[in-house]
Amino acid sequence: MKAKNISRYTYKKTAFQGWRLSIMREGSQYTEYFSDKQYNNDHKESFRAAKTVRDEILGALKKCRDEAKKCKVKAEHKLAEIVSDYRERRAKAKAEAASETKQ
Questions:
Q1: Using CA atoms, how far apart are residues 27 and 70, in angstroms rounded to an integer?
Q2: What is the separation of C-alpha 34 from the centre of its chain, rounded to a whole number of angstroms?
């Protein structure tokens, strides 16, 4: 499986096996690892998760770039801000799922 910004990581000396998502824009870098263990040791599922996150972040970057072209100004949102928004939404979703599980 190949995809832009996603690399397979398999280390014999450590227990980590999974995918690495890495996006760099305007000097800001975002990196996230998707372990096969998190996805029931299914490398295809961890790859799909990495692609989903990548597509969400790149889509947000494209939207900001398109809006900046329309207004003829620099995009206000940079990679760090988009990633921060993504992380906040993900944390909120996890917290909501955990509270539903407790009930």
A1: 24
A2: 9
Phi-psi region of 46 (alpha: psi -120 to 50; beta: other; left: phi over 0): alpha
Residues paired with 73 in a beta bridge: none
pTM, full prediction = 0.69
34-87 pLDDT per residue, tens: 999 888 988 999 999 999 999 988 888 888 777 666 544 444 456 777 778 888
- Taking each helix axis from N to C end, the angle separating 79-102 and 43-71, rounded to the nearest 10 degrees, works out to 130
**Nearest-angstrom CA–CA distance, 15 and 92:** 29
Q: Is the pLDDT of residue 14 over 60?
A: yes
Extended strands (E) in 1-103: 6-10, 17-25, 28-35
CB within 8 A of 1, min separation 6: which ones? 8, 44, 47
